[in-house]
Amino acid sequence: MRFWHFSKGFFLAEIREFEVIFWTFVFPLLLYFFLSAVLGSEGKEGGASFNLAVLGNSASPMGTRIFNQTIDAISQEEGPFKTSTFQDLESAIIAMKRGRQDAVAILGGAQNADSRSIPIQIHFIKGRESSQVAANILELAFEKANLEVAMQSGQEFRPVSSEAIPVKNSISSKRIAYKDYIFPSVALMMILSVALFNSPISLSSYRNSGTNKKLFTTPLRPLEYFAAHLVKLLVTMLGSLILLYLMAWLIYRVRSGIFSLAFFSTLLLAMFCLVSFGLMLASFTRKESAAVVLGQIFYQIMMFMGGFFFSVFGLPWAIRWLVYLLPTTYLVELLRRAMGVTGAPIELFWLIAVPVAWLILSVAIFALNFHKVMGNE
Amino acid sequence: MNRSPLYSLILASFRESMRNKVELFFNLFFPLLFLLIFGSLQRGDDNYRKTWMGLFQSSGQDVESVLKQSGVWEPKLFNSEQQLQDAIQKGELNLGLSFDGSHARFFYKDGDLRTQSKLRLAQVSITAALEKQINQIAPVISSTRIEVTAGKMMASGLDYTLAGIIAIAILSTGMMSVVSMFGRYRKSGVLNQLKIAPLKPLAFILGTTFTRIVLSFFSLLLILGASIIILKASFIINWPLLAITMISSTLGMMAVGLLLNLIFRNPETANTSAGILMFLMYFLAGVFFPVALLPNYMKLVSSLLPLKYVSTLVRHCLGLELIPGNQFAIISISLTLGGLLMLWLVGRKFLRSTRD
């Protein structure tokens, strides 16, 4: 009974902190909403629109007609281009340099001596992503226009069919929507934030403020205190996960295996592995400030280099070794596998073995420093 | 020797900053960590965009030349479709093409959202180029791509990303430092002690923020050094203008930070609000994903944030995109004057609210 009273008090003290409420319970929901809203179209250019400066100087009526028809086709109401007509190249280029236009299309210009085709120039800003994408789409539109003219001219035409095929790491891997795909990342981010911030910071804060010393004058034993700390973390993470699940289930209609036993087991493994990692960090630091700094460093590295949001297996080996060292790389992949998706070229054995190895190592280091961390030396 | 109150405040603030390791970390090394992570990720991505396309061809006309002529892809040949898929599976390539003379199969890594976003364009453009070659179509119109620079040199995508991170670093150092500092002062009662000192609002604000501006400058030097030495950024830096940008932007963001402190009396709430603002800016800076592909309403939100204007100044100072002198002057003077005015107003209110 004493233990549960203490755990309850511990938990209530934790959630009275505004920062804990926000970063643990509200932020994951906001992040999930934001990522789904922004990237929910899965990379299609649906929402994108580009500004195109157009100049027509050709004396060829046919060239002018094809050019205008192509420009009209790509600047309909649904885009992707909004066109503006310019009288001279210089002002169009200046407008592009100032960011008012993404690309410049000019009918006319220098013609190849060995070609009877009508030249079109596409000017774009190198390195500026919007400009490069606009130039790519524009070039493609003119290529398509050439094919269309050839087909309409009655010339024999052999079409090329094409398909896009995902390369899977297993035959059973399936395609899922982005809102499903991102769910494990957001859930792991929340667990990571509790494990690397809430846990080490509260441990060092209680130790440095002398609260622990006062507590240890009561019949409460260090192991009971530590168990209550773990219960508090577990309840905090479960509370946040419930909110995240509700959002995923009710709003985004995520149905891809997030309620499977494999998914729940991986979440549990992630909680134990990452909480142990956080405890290991706490055992290296005496001051609260050092816990904050170490937590931030590992949080950023584990999140971005763990492949939560981008594929990290194409990185140069100078950095890729770090990807293979992090437990989060394996945990996020394991969660995705539980959803039926295979994204990383890693055997299932290693996906379980590496986080378990980190768990054992972290617990061992923490156990060695247990009394130091608890402030009960 | 009699020291002026301003000098004493600057000295005390400097000593306090040097002792505070968390503040030192977040001001100096956190932007560096961010830069190294995203610089590395972007470098890998740049290689893919410029060159690699795995190719296996079983029959039909020469596809290799079609890919080379595109100027976008550098074909890497494979002896079988399986080998090509294995290379993609291992992460050696992001995209591959298998062609049998009439059917093109484009392979990409499952779950790789970054490649998926470019896949559609690659698929349609390469298929069109193949049809053109197979059917020996004499083009009626021939398009030529002409690269233009908006600055002093031909910049890469990585240069733009690094400039975005530098702008974020300037903003975050300015805002976060005052939010945490004044929150701490308020909580520890330091502000109550300062209220009995004969300090004018601007002297009070300048005295406490001067050290943070100096720290911002060191942070800027660190991340610029890392960008150039480690990530091989090709910046041509205009140092005087960069210093102006840094000071004006830091002042502006400090004012925003102070405003948050004034609105939210609880230091933790102010800190969280600043975190939300920074979170929005991280996402809309084009560091995580291209701003060009964001929905229009997101672009509108992006244009309302100070990041847009500070990014414009930073790109100008690094030689990526030059803007007219008067535009530079208007933005930086607006940021400086706006920042100073807000600092003065907020400082006055701050002291008054503390004195009440």
Task: Determine the N-to-C terminus distance of chain B.
Answer: 33 Å
Succession of helices and strands of chain B = HHEHEHEEHEHHHHHHHH
Average pLDDT of chain A, to the nearest integer?
83
Based on CA atoms alone, the radius of gyration of chain B comes out at 26 Å
**Total number of β-strand segments of chain A?**
6
Strand sequence of the main sheet of chain B, in spatial order?
A: 2-1-3-4
Quaternary class: heterodimer
The tally of helices of chain B reads 13
SSE run of chain A: HHEHEEHEEHEHHHHHHHHHH
Query: Reading side by side through the largest sheet of chain A, how are the strands ordered?
Result: 2-3-1-4-5
Count the beta strands of chain B: 5
Overall domain count of chain B: 2
Count of discrete domains of chain A: 2
Largest interface: A-B, 108 and 100 residues
What does the model show?
The complex is a heterodimer of chains A (377) and B (356). Chain A is built from 15 helices and 6 strands. By secondary structure, chain A is α/β, with parallel strands linked by helices. Chain A has 2 domains: 226 residues; 103 residues, Periplasmic binding protein-like II (D-Maltodextrin-Binding Protein, domain 2). Chain A is elongated. Chain A starts with a helix and ends with a helix. Chain B has 2 domains: 244 residues, no CATH class; 84 residues, Alpha-D-Glucose-1,6-Bisphosphate, Chain A, domain 3 (3-Layer(aba) Sandwich). In chain B, helix 8 crosses helix 9 and helix 9 packs antiparallel against helix 12. Chain B is elongated. Chains A and B meet through helix 2, helix 3, helix 4, strand 5 and helix 5 of A and helix 2, helix 4, strand 4, helix 5 and strand 5 of B.
Question: Which properties best describe this structure?
Answer:
heterodimer, A: 377 residues, alpha/beta, 15 helices, elongated, B: 356 residues, Alpha-D-Glucose-1,6-Bisphosphate, Chain A, domain 3, four-stranded mixed beta sheet
Sum this structure up briefly.
The complex is a heterodimer of chains A (377) and B (356). Chain A has helices spanning 2-15, 18-39, 61-74, 89-97, 129-152, 178-181, 183-208, 211-215, 222-251, 261-284, 288-304, 317-325, 327-338, 348-368, 370-374, and strands at 50-56, 75-76, 79-85, 103-107, 118-125, 161-167.
